[in-house]
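Working notes for the structural subgroup meeting. M.R. asked for a predicted model of this chain before we commit to crystallization trials. I am recording the input and output together here so anyone reviewing the notebook later can reproduce the run.

Input as submitted:
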Amino acid sequence: MGSKEYYENTPFINEKVVENLAPRTTMDRFKSVLQATWTPSEHTKLSTLANTTDSQDISFFQKVMAFNRVFKPRTYTSEYIRPNPCPEQHWAMNWRWPRFRMVNPKIPPPTDGAYSDFYHFLAYQHWFKYERKVYYETINIAGLEVNRCITKEGKYNALKNCRHLVNKIFAITREEEHNQVLLHMATTGTNAIRETPYPVDFV
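Returned structure, recorded in token form:
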């Protein structure tokens, strides 16, 4: 199959070749069977492909209790492995500091139900759409406040101490009030719910 130089210089066989290896005894075979380490073509003292160390007799208990992955320290660095892009001390609470701040400039409402031009209508429509988003986000934030209040107060005190938040959600999610708010925003150009209202001379 191969030349003499090939067999004398085999790069994939362990250099620690055991010469004149004695066959396994009956005790070794029974021990490997009881330890669940036996395979029909395995001999723990023989060299195998890409194996530079002798295989060890590992018991079944050691196989079960052993970790199946290699653990690295948190400060482990390598030129082939990507480092940690954002360590824990640099985490930002994205519910407190958003990635961007959206500015919705106030657009003057139509006079007597008529817009000055088509672009005035588009700008006013854009303002109305995002003010409606502010209204819905207020409802979502109130729901989060209810959940946090229930977690803080407990299931017995929450019925009394969180009732005002639930009443607020019920009030601003009524269909009649919601329609009135949207109609008021569309006709007058004033925002319905905003924690920091527009200044008087904003426009």
